[in-house]
Amino acid sequence: MIKNIDKNEALRVTLTISVCMLAGKLLDFNSPVYLALYPTIVMTKGKDYSWQGLVKMLFPTFIAASCALVIAELFHDHPFIIWTISLIFFDQMRRRADTPAKLGGMLMPTFNWILIIVFSQHTTADMPMRIHEILISMAITILITKLMIALLPKTAPLLCQMENRRLWVRKP
Q1: pLDDT value for 1
Q2: What is the distance between the alpha carbons of residues 136 and 129, in angstroms, rounded to a whole number?
Q3: Which of 152, 141, 134, 110 is nearest to 42 (CA)?
């Protein structure tokens, strides 16, 4: 049996994802998938939950989504060009990901690129409005993440707490 489970962490992850998904449903976004994707990645891959850390984590995703939107709009009638540029983008991301941290960091921009390209080719939705939803989804994710971190703070595992007590207890 695992004794060092941080119950706050499990609740924090679950509530953050659930509340974000509920917000996506209540705000009636055309594509609420971003309010499922962003909190899931942030809560499972994120290490720095400060304002700056969360913005730093989501900023490359926003840039990738914006670039994908520009490519999709410029070459709307030429899917071969869009997917060729996409493959070049994926290859560049893979080449630059030479550490496990960089490999994890390329996950969300790659997902967003694919979502934007696929949505632009298979829907009649207003794609520039999609960037608006992406930015709002990022802001909601950051706010709800900060709220859940405040409500359910990180606690040290039981074993670490016991080790700290041993350090401060005098030996006879």
Answers
A1: 42
A2: 11
A3: 141
